[in-house]
UniProtKB/TrEMBL annotation, chain A:
Protein name as catalogued: ABC transporter permease
Regions that span the bilayer: 12-31, 75-96, 105-127, 183-205, 211-234, 246-267
Statement: the UniProt record of this protein carries the keyword Transmembrane: yes
Subcellular location, record wording: Cell membrane
Cellular component terms per the entry's GO annotation: plasma membrane
Domain ABC transmembrane type-1: 71-262
CDD domains xrefs: TM_PBP2 (cd06261)
Top-level taxonomic group: Bacteria
PROSITE patterns linked to this entry: ABC_TM1 (PS50928)
A GO biological-process term: transmembrane transport
Organism, scientific name: Mesorhizobium wenxiniae
TrEMBL record, chain B:
CDD domains membership: TM_PBP2
Domain ABC transmembrane type-1: 86-300
Keyword Transferase: no
Name this polypeptide is given: ABC transporter permease
Organism classification: Bacteria, Pseudomonadati, Pseudomonadota, Alphaproteobacteria, Hyphomicrobiales
Tagged with keyword NADP: no
Source organism (scientific name): Mesorhizobium mediterraneum
Record GO biological process: transmembrane transport
Main location: membrane
Regions crossing the membrane: 28-54, 90-111, 123-144, 183-202, 223-243, 279-303
Similarity-based family: Belongs to the binding-protein-dependent transport system permease family.
Bilayer topology: Multi-pass membrane protein
Amino acid sequence: MNRYSIFGTALHRLAILCYVVFALFPLFWLLKVSVTPNDLLYSEGVRMWPSRMSFEHFRFVLAHSAFPVFFRNSMIVAGATAVIVTLLASLSGYALSRFTFRGKYWLVALMLLTQMFPLVMLVAPIFKMLSPLGLTNSLTGLVVVYTAFNIPFATFLMQSFFDGIPKELEEAAKIDGATQFMAFRQIVLPLTLPGIAATLGFVFTAAWSELLFALMLISGNSAATFPVGLLTFVSKFSVDFGQMMAAGVLALIPACLFFLFIQRYLVQGLTAGAVKG
Amino acid sequence: MVFDATAGLPESRRQSLVDRITRHAEPYLYTAPALILIVTIMLAPLVLGLSYAFRDVHLLNPFSGGYVGLDHFRTLYDDDNFYRALRNTLWWTGASVLLQFVFGLILALLLDRPFAGRAIAQALVFLPWAVPTFLTGLNWAWLFNPVIGPLPHWLYALGLMSEPANILSNPQLAMWGPIIANVWWGIPFFAITLLAALQAIPRDLYEAAAIDGAGAVRRFTSITLPFLAPTIAITVLLRTVWISNFADLIIVMTSGGPADRTQIVASYIFTQAFRALDFGYASAIALVLLVLLLAYSMLIVMLRQVLMDRA
C-alpha cells in the first residue's frame, strides 16, 4: 500500500510536469527567438538558448513601429468590454438562475443561437450598420460589438456561479425585509466574486484576441488593435522572425498579467463557504 | 390612472399590487440590457446577412445588391470545395474536442489533488488559455517551421520524418498543425470548467464512501462522474459548436491550404468573403452551415431541459 502510494505520487508529479512543459514550451520558444540576434538565428539551429542575447528586436518594434498605440487601443477596448459585459451578464445570469418567467426558454434559446452561427456572417452587415453611425474605425464601435458577442457566454457562466449559491440565503434576507435586488447586490454578488473575476478574465482575453471584426471595422493605424497591428506587421516583414516574435511577446504580456492576477480566483473558493450549505 | 384606481384600496392591498407588478417585471429588467444588445448587434445583422444569401453582394461594388434567387445555392450544390470543407470540419472538430476534453479532464483530476506548489503549477498549465488565438496560431506555425522551429528537427531525429519538413505544407498531415495548436490552447478551458465542478463535490461524500469501504475507482464512478456529468455534457456540446466555427487558427496557420486540405466551412466562408469579396456566396454557405448547426443546437436545448428537470 505504501509503495503503491509513493509510486502514485511520483506518477502524479511527473504527469503535472509534462503538462507544465507542454504548456510553456511554445511560449519559451517565442521568447528565445525574440532575444536571439539575427546573425545567430540560422547558424545555431535548435539550441535551447542563444549563446548571446540581444534586445535589438524589441528596440526596433518599440521605437520604429506603432505598437505602443496598438497596445493602448487594445487595453482600452478589452478593459471596457470586460467591465460592461460582466456587469450586464451578472444581471441576466442572475435572472436565469433565480426566476421562472415567460420567455425564459426563448431567451436561453436565443443566447444559444448566438453561440451557434458563424460570426463571420455578421462582418458585412455590421459594417454596413455601424458605418452611418460613425462607429467604424472607432474604439467605441469595437466595444459595442465585442460586448454583444460576449454577453451570451458570460451570462451562462454567471448563471452557473449563481446556481451554486443556495437560494436560502436570499430567502432569509427577504424575510428580514430586503428586496430581491438588495439580496442580490449585498449577499449573492459578494459570494460570486470568484465567478466575477473568472468572467472578467474570459471576456478580457476574448476581446484582446479578436481579429476578424477588428480587421474589418478598423482601417489605418490610429484605432488599430494589437492583433490587427501584429498581423499587418507579419505580412509586411514576413522574413524577420526575430521582430515578429518580439512583437508577439509584447502581445502576450497584458493578457498573461491579467490572467495571472485573476487565475487564483478561477477555481479556488468557487465552492468554499456558502456553497456547501 | 393606475394610482387612482387603487387609491381607494386599503394600504396593504395597494402594496401587494405594486409588489406583484414589480415581481413580474423584475426578471425582464435584469435581462433587458443583454437582450437589447444581442438583438441589435447580433440578430438584426444576422437577418440582414441571410438576405445577402439571395442577393448578389460584392463588398466593394456599389452596383451590386440585386436579387438573384437561388443561384448561389445551385453553385454551392456542385461545389466540391464545399463538400471537402464539410468533411474537414467534422475531422477538425471531432479531433480537437475529443483531445481537449480527455487531456482537460486528466489535468483537472491531477489538480484536484492537493500537493506542494499546486497554485503555481495551476497558473502555469492554464497559461495557454490567456494567449490570444492569432498569436497561438502564429506561434505554432513558427514551431512547425524548419527554418525557425525545433519540431521538424526533433521529428527527424526520432526517425518519424525522412527530412526536417514543415507538416503544414504536407497535404496528408497539415490538419494536425491547427489541431495541435487548438488542443494546446483549449485544454485549460476544459480543465478550469471541470476542476470547478470537481471542487463543488462535497468532500464528506468521499469520506463517507471511504469509511464504507469504497475504493478509488468505485468513488470515481459513483461520486465523481455523476456529479460531473451535467458539466461535461454542456461543456462538450457548446464547445463542439464553438470549435466547428473557429477559423482563426486555420486562417493564421495555413489559410486553408495546402490544396484546401485544412479548409473548414468557417474558413471557406472567410475566404469567399475576404479574398473573393463575394459576400452573397459567403452568406449562402453560411446559411447552409447555420441550418446544420441549428439542428444540433435544438439537441442542446432539449438536453439542457432534461438535465434541469432531473436536477
